[in-house]
Automatic annotation (TrEMBL):
UniProt KW keywords: ATP-binding, Isoprene biosynthesis, Kinase, Nucleotide-binding, Transferase
Pfam families xref list: GHMP_kinases_C (PF08544), GHMP_kinases_N (PF00288)
Source lineage: Bacteria, Pseudomonadati, Pseudomonadota, Gammaproteobacteria, Pseudomonadales
Encoding gene (name): ispE
EC number, as in UniProt: 2.7.1.148
GO biological process terms on file: isopentenyl diphosphate biosynthetic process, methylerythritol 4-phosphate pathway; terpenoid biosynthetic process
Superkingdom of this protein's organism: Bacteria
Pathway given in the UniProt record: Isoprenoid biosynthesis; isopentenyl diphosphate biosynthesis via DXP pathway; isopentenyl diphosphate from 1-deoxy-D-xylulose 5-phosphate: step 3/6
Protein's UniProt name: 4-diphosphocytidyl-2-C-methyl-D-erythritol kinase
Binding sites annotated in the UniProt record for ATP: P97, M98, G99, G100, G101, L102, G103, G104, G105, S106, S107
Length: 287
């Protein structure tokens, strides 16, 4: 059966990621530049008037349904309204590697918040949805707002940014990295000086870096090798706490040539960086 609504759930890149301090609760204060990719997961929403509640069409391998950010986002939204809501089955077409630093789970949560707000005609605004999203994860608000942004705090204080919409080769080295483990590493740089941004920040990411990269290179030889390989062709960097890395190219054909020559055993994809989220483009078309 055709879903009532199909929405993209794009990936993000951290074009740079600085750790500028640590909060009393142990969370790290960041300065980061988020940009979306025109590549990601897809969520299908099917209304089930005969069956109340929200459920997944099929479970995500290794993630109990109650922990799935799609279900957690739906429940967070349902907690905002007292009126009875039509039941929904949500189908997640997963393309993004989990725990890869591409924000797949956070993006799924944001797509669920915006998708159900639309389907149920709840009328919550982006500020309200971003606040709800922050309770699910630090990366959710940028996906809810849908514009490339300079992020501060844990990534929730957002200022719109306009980095160049380059092409990227994204590689997923064959290892999984736990975000919590990287943030608890002793050798992590935690005192990068804060940068000040001008109002129309474009984000010349090449001037900045990912502070997790040195630690991740030391702990994960697969990431180290992939970064060394990709750096031969242009600037290459880690996104989030990894494991994915990206190389930036001015054209699609330049990116594809490098992609075709990647070492065996490394997976990934080619995608364009976009400053307006594909989710928001689709929702605007529906209005
Ligand atoms: C690294 C980024 O992907 C950059 O966009 C995000 O900041 C990650 O944010 P997130 O997905 O909310 O991170 P989680 O997977 O919930 O974090 C796992 C653990 O990493 C540590 N953590 C995470 C984010 C942060 N700013 N400081 C931290 O110290 C915390 O111990 C946390 O319990
Ligand atoms: N719908 C979902 N999609 C992916 N992961 C999910 C989902 N729901 C819960 N999770 C859990 O969240 C964890 C992190 O997944 P995610 O894909 O967001 O990581 P990430 O790309 O490293 O994100 P970030 O850059 O925010 O750290 C997964 O390992 C998984 O256990």
């Amino acid at each position: 059966m055709m879903p009532d609504l199909i929405l993209p759930s794009p990936a993000k890149l951290n074009l740079f990621l600085h750790i500028v301090g640590r909060r009393p609760d142990g969370y790290h204060e960041l300065q980061t530049l988020f940009q979306f990719l025109d590549y990601g997961d897809e969520l299908g929403f099917t209304l089930t008037p005969e069956r109340p509640g929200v459920r997944l069409a099929e479970p995500l391998a290794g993630v109990p349904d109650t922990d799935n950010l799609v279900i957690r986002a739906a429940h967070a939204l349902m907690g905002q309204v007292s009126a009875p809501l039509t039941g929904v089955t949500i189908h997640v077409r997963k393309r993004l590697p989990m725990g890869g630093g591409l924000g797949g789970g956070s993006s799924n949560a944001a797509t669920t918040l915006l998708g159900l707000n639309h389907l149920w005609q709840l009328g919550l605004n982006l500020d309200e949805l971003a606040d709800l999203g922050l309770s699910l994860g630090a990366d959710v608000p940028v996906f809810v707002r849908g514009h490339a942004a300079f992020g501060e705090g844990v990534g929730e204080k957002l200022t719109e940014a306009h980095p160049p919409e380059d092409w990227f080769v994204i590689l997923k080295p064959a290892c999984n990295i736990n975000t919590g483990k990287i943030f608890s590493e002793q050798g992590l740089t935690r005192n990068t000086p804060r940068i000040k941004i001008a109002p129309a920040f474009e984000g010349d990411a090449s001037r900045y870096r990912n502070d997790c990269e040195d630690v991740v290179r030391k702990l994960y030889p697969e990431v180290n090798q992939s970064l060394d390989w990709l750096s031969q062709f242009g600037p290459a960097r880690l996104t989030g706490t990894g494991a994915c890395i990206f190389g930036r190219f001015p054209t699609e054909s330049a990116a594809r040539i490098i992609w075709e020559s990647k070492p065996s055993g490394v997976t990934g994809f080619v995608a364009k960086g976009v400053n307006i989220s594909p989710l928001h483009k689709k929702l605007t078309e529906l209005e």
